[in-house]
Design a protein that fits this description.
151 residues, mainly alpha
Length: 151
């Protein structure tokens, strides 16, 4: 069916074509589970970066921005809430949330290190370049030799 062909093409790009097309249902489920696990870990790292960045920005504003900065002549706030300091209780809450999330990520350090090592090892980057250079081959599709020649 057409949907099956599209699924095979997409999964052959995300994984290797041999690992997907020649696998039985058990191996396909394991490959999908591993892919979902890595994607989830990447999302957790992104959320951690956002939480940590927000906490650092709020702390910076509380510590180094004067309370009256950003007040326009008309009494309104210039440029939104960029110069407004949050109450100390909110800053402490954001710092505590960032601390707890950082502890959560540190508990998952071994898994994070494994993913980072696989990225730094070049396996993912080589795979992306292979897909960009020759997508037909990487998807496991047969090449059409007659149409490519201009003789």
């Amino acid at each position: 069916s057409a949907m099956r062909s599209v699924l095979d093409a997409v999964m052959s790009v995300l994984l290797t074509s041999d690992a997907w097309r020649n696998a039985d249902s058990f191996r396909r489920q394991r490959s999908l589970a591993k892919l979902v696990s890595r994607t989830s870990l990447l999302a957790e790292l992104c959320v951690g970066g956002i939480v940590l960045g927000d906490a650092a920005q709020v702390f910076w504003r509380m510590a180094f921005v004067a309370p009256d900065i950003g007040i326009a002549a008309g009494g309104g706030i210039a440029g939104g809430s960029a110069g407004v300091r949050l109450p100390f209780r909110m800053v402490v809450g954001k710092m505590a949330c960032a601390h707890l999330y950082l502890n959560f990520l540190l508990a998952r350090r071994k898994r994070i290190e494994a993913v980072v090592t696989s990225i730094r090892g070049g396996a993912i980057l080589d795979r992306v370049l292979d897909v960009l250079m020759d997508p037909r081959k990487e998807m496991g599709l047969k090449e059409e030799e007659d149409e490519d020649h201009d003789d």
